[in-house]
Specification:
By secondary structure, the protein is an alpha/beta fold. It is built from 13 helices and eight strands. An eight-stranded parallel barrel has the order 1-2-3-4-5-6-7-8, surrounded by six helices. Helix 1 packs across helix 13. The chain binds glyceraldehyde-3-phosphate.
Length: about 260
């Protein structure tokens, strides 16, 4: 059994300008200690306009916080107005990029095919994808949440070789639990995360599946994180709203103390 280092990632979504991003990252850095980073990998996913500021702060102050983007273009460059490319993110030394977040799927019509192309673009540029999957409420109510989510996993991983697949992070985010305050029960989250790991074992091997980190996302807070992290197949959290409060995010990182 591989020991997977938990990954707590704060997805800031469209919040915090670059000045606020600097202040927020400094606050996190001030609160977090070496022992936190030894136990947990900590990352922030700011808006594109903040990335250069966060990079400069992290590198200048030698912070142990990782950072990444919230989206990536499938193209390396060219006439694609408004897009941000993998080479641009790589130049900013982004460690991670969120791909296929439900808000991208819902508001920008992102399909599994596009998610797959973006996963490939991330790997091509040396950036680790945090590939987001999860079902809408009607899918869960119909009892099809596992099938639905596994189809997203399979679609997103199409053509990805094992040596890349074993490094990916998959975030299971039931859409009905995002920003709603409705947390998926820890055991319900575990059911889907275990199924995701099983699907990876089927597509690749148990060895690959044991290495992949699977996060839960959806109304994670300091008050519920410990129970979620107590599940065998949950290796971290993708935190939205609660990551905008530095004290709260630090408590989430210290889930073992909650
Ligand atoms: O990426 C994060 C998820 O969408 C969860 O957001 P939330 O913690 O605000 O529910």
């Amino acid at each position: 059994m591989t020991t997977r280092t938990p990954l707590m990632a704060g997805n800031w979504k469209m919040n915090l300008n670059h000045l606020e991003a600097i202040a927020h990252t400094q606050k996190l850095a001030f609160a977090l200690a070496d022992k936190d980073y030894e136990a947990v990998e900590v990352a922030v996913l700011p808006p594109f306009t903040d990335l250069r500021s966060v990079q400069t702060l992290v590198e200048h102050d030698k912070l142990k916080i990782k950072y990444g983007a919230q989206d990536i273009s499938v193209h390396d460059g060219g006439a694609y107005t408004g897009e941000i490319s993998g080479p641009m993110l790589a130049k900013l030394r982004c460690t991670y990029v969120a791909i296929g977040h439900s808000e991208r799927r819902q508001y920008h019509g992102e399909t599994d095919e596009l998610v797959n192309a973006k996963v490939k673009a991330a790997f091509k540029n040396g950036i680790t994808p945090i590939m987001c999957v999860g079902e809408e409420l009607e899918v869960r109510d119909a009892g099809n949440h596992v099938t639905h989510t596994l189809a997203q996993v399979e679609g997103g991983l199409k053509g990805i070789p094992a040596e890349q697949a074993e490094t990916i992070v998959i975030a299971y985010e039931p859409v009905w639990a995002i920003g709603t305050g409705k947390v998926c029960g820890a055991e319900d989250a575990q059911e889907v995360c275990a199924a995701i790991r099983g699907k990876i074992a089927e597509l690749y091997s148990q060895e690959v599946a044991d290495k992949v980190r699977i996060q839960y996302g959806g109304s994670v807070k300091s008050g519920n994180v410990a129970e979620i992290m107590g599940q065998a197949d949950i290796d971290g959290a993708l935190v939205g709203g609660a990551s905008l409060d530095a004290d709260e995010f630090v408590k989430i990182v210290r889930f073992r103390d909650q």
